[in-house]
Every structure is written in C-alpha cells, then in structure tokens.
Amino acid sequence: MPLAVSLDESFRPPWWLHNRHLQSILPSLPVRRRRMARSLAPLLDASRTVVLDCGDGVRLQAFHAAPPAGGPGAAPGARLAVLLHGWEGSADSIYVLSLAQQLFARGFEVVRLNLRDHGATHHLNRELFHSCRLPEVVGAVRRVQWLYPGRSLCLAGFSLGGNFMLRVAAQADAADLTIAKVLAISPVLDPVATLHAMENGFSAYERYFLRKWTRSLALKQAAWPGEYDFSALRRERSVRRITAELVRSHTEFASLEEYLNGYAIVGPRLAHLAVPATIITSLDDPLIPARDLERLAPTPSLRVIATRHGGHCGFMERGAGSTWAELTAAAELDAPATAAPGEAGAAARNAVDLRSALAFPRS
Q1: How many structural domains comprise the chain?
Q2: Per-residue pLDDT at 273
C-alpha cells in the first residue's frame, strides 16, 4: 500500500509564479536576502559559531542562536531546531536563514549546521564531502543534544539536507537520539532520478550546480595543498562524470549507481522511522520527480504535504519574505506534539491519489 499524500490547496501563488522553474530560482536570488536583512538581524546578532566534534576526528561547523534571556524558549526544557541546507548551499543560505528566523521568533533555539566542505569549512576535514557521510551528521546532532541538554529537539532540512535529516531520524533509536519531530522541504528521494532530471531538464540547474561545485573543489584544493588536484575535473561540464570520477577515486563505493543508491530514501530506508516526520514537497518539482513519493515506505510516522505548484524549495507567494513552505514548516514544528496531523496548517489537507494529482498541466 503506497504512502498517502495530502494535497494542500492553501498555497495559491499568483499566475505569474505558477512556473516551476521561476519558483525554483527566485527564492535564492540576492534581492530576497537584501529585502529580508532587517527581519534576519535579531537571529544573526544572536548567532555564535560552534565547531562540533562529530566523532572519528570529524568536525562540522554550526551556528547557535538562543532567544534573549527571559524570553520564550530561553530556559532548558525549551525547543531547539537543527537546520540543514541543500547541496552546495550553506548555513547562511537565505532559505535556511528565513526558516531559522521564523523559529527564532517563536522562541526556538536554532542551530544552523554546515555539511562538510560547505560554507567556509573546507579546511576542517581532510577527506571530501559526499552524500553518504551520514554518520558524521548523526554525530553532529548527537553533539548538539549533549551541548544543549533538556531541549526538545527538532530537525529540519532542505533538498539534500532534508534527505539527511530523514535518514538521521530513521536512526534515532540506534544512535541514542531523542528527536521530537523531523521536517523535510523538497527532500531528495531517489538520487538516480534526480540526476536524470537534472541532465534531461532545464539546463540552468546543471550549470548552476557545476559552477558552485567546481568553485568548492577549488577551495578544497587550496585548503589542502598537495592533497588534491582538481584542475582537470573542474573543466568537466557534466555532474554525472564529475560524480563518477570522485566516487571512483575518493570513496569506497564500487560504482556510481551503488553510491547514488546509498543515500536514497525510497524503498525500505524509512520503514522503521519512529519519529513524527513531515515532508513538504511540490508535485511540479523539476528535480525531485513526484512519482517517487509512491516508493516511500508507508510508515505511520511519515506524512507528505504536497502542493500543485512550488518547484524545488520554492513555494513563493510574493516577491520577498518567507515562503509558504518556510511558514508552514515553522507552524508544523511549533505545533504541540499531541496535535492531530495537519492541525497546524491553515487549510484542510485531503488525501489524494498521487497519479490523479499528477495529471494537472505544468507550466
């Protein structure tokens, strides 16, 4: 029996924001950061850098922000949210900051985590980042739990970060983590399908990630002179070929396919998920095929909120400010743990047949 998907019709962008590519690109443009600078100031002023010991010599950087003393959520026993960005994003990505600000204003302590080799962290660890480095993210969450005891711990992530956080939550019992909730916005479901969509869809996505990834490889080489030489690889114009070469030369995986399947969350990967989990996704996501939602294990702990429009991590209702998904995520995480599913949402969410929902025309 496939996982039930709830279609949320409360997200109604204006007609000019129906296009899924526009939705995917607009939220990350610099103009949004400039327009949100004032609202983000309290969060950024309260943020302090923390380098987390994740075990096995791995260190990851994070930024911790606590509400003012005497304010809601300031004392032990309050809520703490760990937020994780997408591939080639960072803890300072505008979508992370926007959700962090929403939670901070609701009294949450917030930890914004950087994955290995993301942000200005290429110097912290000798080995390269890859998406199967789940143990160090588990270790980072465990360290946060140790550093800030007594908090009710929530996890949230975007795209690859959402994929990581769902995998962390699925290991909560084995890793001795006490997680109240986990929420993922546009999480990567099947990396094989995402790579195919990137290669065969709107070419701007592959160019965007190539530009950011090759810049990151240059920073890694500069941080570890003599250890790496990516000069030839940085001239490649294919995400697939770069990934395959790095898998071959810098991981233990036997093939590209084995590596990609190593961080998929479709199939049985989330079957034993016991943490209350919510996925917010769009049926028109150009990078995460919505048909793969049917391949998620139908665990009672997991529910999916889908919208007709929204693109990949988009969900823009206007030209600036927090997106619908960020506001919905904040409300979901803020809702009492005993709330009925969907109670935090503004509109009723009705279970739908995924195949019929996918039949609507796309912009």
Answers
A1: 1
A2: 96
